[in-house]
Design goal:
This protein is of the alpha/beta class. A six-stranded parallel β-sheet has the order 2-1-6-3-4-5, with helices on both faces. Helix 2 links the parallel strand 1 and strand 2.
């Protein structure tokens, strides 16, 4: 839980959502490192959780469980991310993606197709993106399926998407908010994520085997 990931920006956006009456529950995943000067202090994360506006759940290895509970992936990073594993796991689970326009994130997410791309350090734009997806369940499904298709476009389609709740089931009231997840699962070796990372290698191996068979 470090500031370059934009955790504080997401919490600021949530305060705006509360003021606008848009029901969004935030779940944060990842360890806190109080020895890191860029870390969000543990006490701050715990206080935020006690406020009732969301949950800090620490490190998890249950990636499938995260995406059974969550509707939207959010990564408002301030700087380059490489290719975030957590993003690929969410995409493989057919969840729409909200990311910032930084290297890595923007190389996977096309604005308006797999999700929404907003400028870094822009709480207003992040809030607007959250409102748009939180209030449009059909758009969430459309973008989530596009994200999954992009993730698995060059790999055999053996990864099943995480089951969805009925469309819009968590939108209607403050007691049933849309759920957003942010976090790092770098050490989680999920099957869905391995499929994404190994896509080109698997496709190349299949082509080589087919070529030998024809020969």
């Amino acid at each position: 839980m470090i500031r370059p990931k934009g955790v504080d920006l997401l919490l600021a956006a949530q305060a705006r959502l509360d003021a606008e009456g848009v029901a969004v529950a935030i779940e944060l995943y990842g360890r806190s490192d109080d020895g890191n000067p860029e870390a969000i202090p543990t006490a701050e994360l715990e206080a935020w959780g006690r406020s009732g506006r969301g949950k800090w759940l620490g490190h998890t290895s249950d990636v499938a469980g995260v995406w059974r509970r969550s509707d939207i992936f959010v990564l408002p990073a301030r700087s380059r991310e490489g290719m975030p594993r957590a993003l690929l796991e969410a995409a493989a689970s057919a969840r729409p993606l909200i990311v910032t326009d930084v290297p890595g994130c923007r190389h996977f997410v096309r604005d308006g197709i797999e999700g929404l791309v907003v400028p870094p350090n822009d709480v207003a734009a992040l809030t607007a993106a959250l409102v748009r997806l939180a209030t449009d369940p059909d758009l969430r499904v459309q973008m989530g399926l596009a994200a999954r298709a992009r993730c698995l476009s060059r790999t055999p389609r053996t990864v099943r998407p995480t089951p969805r709740r009925p469309s819009g089931a968590r939108v209607s009231s403050r007691t049933a908010p849309v759920s957003c997840a942010l976090g790092s699962t770098r050490k989680v070796a999920s099957r869905a994520n391995r499929e994404c990372f190994d896509a080109k290698r698997a496709a190349a191996r299949t082509r080589r085997i087919s070529s030998r068979a024809r020969a």
